[in-house]
Design brief:
Blueprint (H helix, E strand, L loop, with lengths): L1 H8 L15 E13 L3 E12 L2 E12 L10 H10 L2 H19 L1
Antiparallel strand pairs: 1-2, 2-3
Length: 108
């Protein structure tokens, strides 16, 4: 009896069409922060935003750190520009000295 009652009282959406209702989902990804930390670390933050009918419904972040010894050819141009400006010869030399110091500490 429950099945009969339930099927009689609940609306049958399969026979209806929802005319005029269109839902637009859009996803955008953008690098919104680039920071130089400790002279040579470059922190990059990428935000992914999902919007439903122009209203934000979700937002996530992805972060990564770049150092002077890394290949940055796959990075966006604005990240490359910051890296090229920040990583002067003096900064790269200081970074290499730091790495050598850390390696010698670990070897002891």
């Amino acid at each position: 009896m429950w099945f009969l009652y339930n099927s009689l009282t609940r609306p049958d959406y399969s026979s209806r069409t929802l005319k005029g209702l269109k839902m637009a989902l859009t996803e955008s990804t953008n690098i919104d922060q680039i920071e130089v930390v400790n002279d040579w670390n470059i922190q990059v933050r990428q935000v992914t935003t999902i919007e439903k009918d122009d209203v934000q419904v979700a937002r996530t972040f992805h972060r990564w750190v770049l150092t002077p010894d890394m290949d940055i050819s796959a990075q966006e141009q604005k990240v490359k520009n910051i890296a090229n400006a920040a990583w002067t010869n003096e900064v790269v030399a200081a970074y290499n000295a730091f790495k050598e110091e850390q390696a010698s500490r670990l070897a002891q």
